[in-house]
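quick q for whoever's on today - can somebody do inverse folding on this one?? i tried earlier but teh output was garbage lol. tokens:
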């Protein structure tokens, strides 16, 4: 597990290069008190409630073991606890100095001399970050018989020494920027601190988050429920807006499809009917005046030309297309346009009176005249 212990910086001096060197007591033997919730499964399995206070003993043979002391030398100094263990991959990202090689024992304390080398970190150590917090990893095991504690800390391995803000109060003074559990207080074996809780003084309440039921402080339960309700409402509102937008889009798509269908229908042209109507009109016009050339003339212009040929120019002067159409219908009501194809079928092809030889001779004569010209 990750742990951090918060202490005050001791004597401080600045080198000629501007580095800041301190003398700090960073770890001690004795009993530290934690909330059971901070120690995780081992406390729960031992029967403690989350807000129970449990006692964890750090024995001299663990605190001053060769491995523990060796893990202290050259560990990096950081500003606040980083969110991860400091190692070779991220050292340059977090380190602003380091602990020296000298590690000493002062009674139940370990004493080191951290050096801060970064200018901004030196300024922080003088102003906003005047305390230090040791970040380390350790194992928690059940206390041995005869030890006046619930658990013992073993295999202590230091990771970094963090500069932390001074005078932070309440739970923030214990929790080191998400690094790990921090003690409520330090005592010695046999001491009975005033804040030792035999029974829980903190009331919890169960709230449901997703598919899990969790315990929160009773005074926070209402706030959690309020947050859940606001979140659920925000989600419902967002879903409603999304549904409305989809429906509006579907309606627009349906409208466009209908308009497209109408446009396609309007665009459908009966070519055969148009050709037949045009042919009939030309035949009617030709029946009135065979000299009228329909090429390039619209239907209205053809009717106008036929009316002029039949009734004169004055009849169409200032007349609208509708009036001209009426006059055209009047003058063609009894006309039956010639049907050349029908006539052929009915009477056969009429002989022009020329034999094939005569026709050929006439053709050659025309060619000859053209050459002479």
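ok took a stab at it. sequence:
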């Amino acid at each position: 597990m990750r742990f951090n212990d918060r202490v005050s910086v001791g004597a401080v001096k600045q080198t000629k290069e501007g580095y800041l060197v301190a003398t700090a007591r960073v770890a001690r033997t004795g009993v530290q008190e934690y909330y059971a919730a901070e120690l995780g499964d081992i406390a729960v399995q031992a029967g403690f409630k989350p807000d129970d206070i449990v006692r964890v003993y750090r024995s001299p043979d663990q605190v001053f073991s060769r491995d523990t002391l060796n893990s202290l030398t050259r560990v990096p100094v950081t500003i606040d606890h980083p969110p991860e263990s400091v190692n070779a991959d991220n050292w340059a990202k977090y380190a602003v100095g380091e602990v020296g090689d000298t590690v000493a024992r002062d009674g139940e304390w370990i004493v080191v001399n951290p050096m801060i080398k970064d200018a901004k970190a030196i300024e922080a150590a003088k102003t906003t970050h005047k305390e230090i917090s040791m970040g380390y990893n350790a194992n928690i095991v059940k206390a041995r018989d005869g030890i006046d504690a619930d658990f013992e800390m073993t295999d202590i391995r230091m990771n970094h020494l963090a500069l932390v803000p001074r005078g932070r109060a309440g739970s923030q003074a214990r929790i080191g920027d998400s690094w790990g559990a921090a003690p409520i207080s330090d005592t010695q074996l046999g001491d009975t601190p005033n804040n030792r809780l035999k029974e829980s003084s903190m009331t919890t309440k169960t709230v449901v988050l997703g598919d899990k039921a969790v315990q929160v402080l009773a005074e926070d339960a209402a706030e959690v429920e309020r947050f859940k309700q606001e979140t659920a409402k925000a989600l419902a509102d967002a879903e409603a807006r999304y549904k409305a937008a989809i429906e509006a889009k579907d309606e627009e798509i349906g409208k466009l499809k209908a308009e497209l269908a109408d446009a396609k229908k309007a665009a459908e042209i009966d070519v055969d009917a148009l050709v037949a109507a045009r042919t009939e009109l030309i035949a009617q016009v030709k029946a009135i005046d065979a000299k009228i050339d329909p090429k390039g003339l619209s239907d209205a212009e053809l009717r106008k030309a036929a009316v002029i040929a039949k009734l004169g120019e004055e009849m169409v002067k200032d007349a609208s297309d509708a009036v001209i159409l009426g006059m055209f219908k009047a003058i063609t009501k009894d006309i039956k346009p010639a049907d050349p194809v029908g006539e052929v079928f009915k009477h056969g092809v009429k002989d022009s009176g020329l034999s094939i030889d005569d026709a050929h001779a006439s053709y050659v004569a025309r060619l000859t005249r053209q050459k002479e010209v």
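fwiw The chain is about 40% helix and 25% strand. also Residues 35 and 53 are 5 Å apart (CA to CA). so keep that in mind when u check it
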